[in-house]
Amino acid sequence: MLALDNLYCIAMLRQELRLKLSQKLSPQQIQLMKLIQLPTLAFEQRVQQELEENPLLESGKEKEEIDEDLSNEFDDDGTEVIETDINVDDYLSDDETPSYKLSSSNYSADDEDKQVPYASGTSFTQYLLTQLSTYRLDDTEYAIAEFLVGSIDSSGYIRRDLEDILDDLAFTQNIYSELPVVEKILETVQTLDPAGVGARDLKECLLLQLERKTQTDSIQLATTILKDYFDEFSKKHYSQLERRLKIDTDTLREGIQEIEQLNPKPGGSYSGNTRIIEHVIPDFTIKIIDGKLDLTLNGRNAPDLHISNEYSNILKGYKESEKPTKEQQEAVQFVKQKLDGAKWFIDAIRQRQQTLMLTMTAIMEYQEDYFLSGDERQLKPMILKDIAETIHMDISTVSRVANSKYVETPYGTKLIKEFFSESMTNVDGEEVSTLEIKDILQSIIDKEDKTKPHTDEILASLLEEKGYPIARRTIAKYRKQLDIPVARLRREL
After folding, report:
1. pTM of the complete model beyond 0.70
2. Which terminus of the chain faces fewer neighbouring Cβ atoms within 10 Å, N or C?
3. Selecting from 1.10.10.60, 1.20.80.10, 1.10.10.10, 1.10.150.390, what CATH number does the domain 424-493 have?
């Protein structure tokens, strides 16, 4: 019995060697995919980061480079290959233009401002604190008021419960107060400009603005609607409002118009709010020259990078040493590793440029009719797979290019992914882009009678009359994608 147990244990511990095929991306391939995904501004920052981290990588024009043979002086595992006749002079060449220069005729020689613009001025919080300093408050009251101002977001709201603010005052400011006191000081904060600032919700924000207006009949009606019938107003149940307030449509319209003139985001109206201004840098430019399309890649995607020869002295010292020290060996190994990294990064940039140009060229040729005319009805149905098959690349690569890149066209700067769409067949049997259908749907809704907006069923029938048989649920999907509310919420008095 004991022998059988031993045999069982031996069988359980037996090792087997199995061959298995699997596909995995190398670290270099993963980094290349990340580079492809970056838009121009982020790519510049990535290049700058690499320049700072790798001392063997330099930017600018240079007539010297380190020969690729340096990479072969060490095995891949970092083990030194000792050679007695290492000639460092062979690593440098003064006669050739560096092969790492990344330039081509299809890159535009633009010289754009590389700085991200900032709006200057006083911040919104500082603007409120400046007003607060004119109020007569004791030290404790001012500290609480200052804390409340600091809790106001960029839209002008205080999104936190006052109970939570009370706790924070106690733990962070060592100020112990009571809820009625904080509510009273909040009323003071809510008197600051712009009107409506410091509100805790939309209803309170709108009411604060109405309080500062001259009290007319329409203002009083608007106040009553917000105070007592805010839910009916927000859902545009106008018939219920007329019935409950016992007023006619014209009177209700006057009250609604007063509310519509209010600002739901009072903080957004402060022009001095310092923030980064959105600045879209097109990655490509398409021009029409002599009736033909001309595509160029933004020159900022093609930096001049080369290998530095600053470390040639280290290599010379290693060559001249009869018996290299451990420090010299480590220094040369460091140079080798950084050289490999620099050469890989330069090659990755070249591959990135080629991939971008190849992908965008295929998109431009696929949508040639649109780029020549600017008519969105000329946009053909196009999915990622169509371009991937054309350029013989993976769909994920095309997606990385399309999702984050912009192209400047004669008709404006467009996000590349906007050119992709599904297709459907019209009554004539022709395949049309869903973009075309959405454009027609938007046009129908823009022209509808806002007192009686079209329901999704009516919109479906109108599109069918135009030759586009679409189900009601598809209309609802397109309407949501266009950020168009349902008919009830589009209704106007």
Report:
1. no
2. N
3. 1.10.10.60
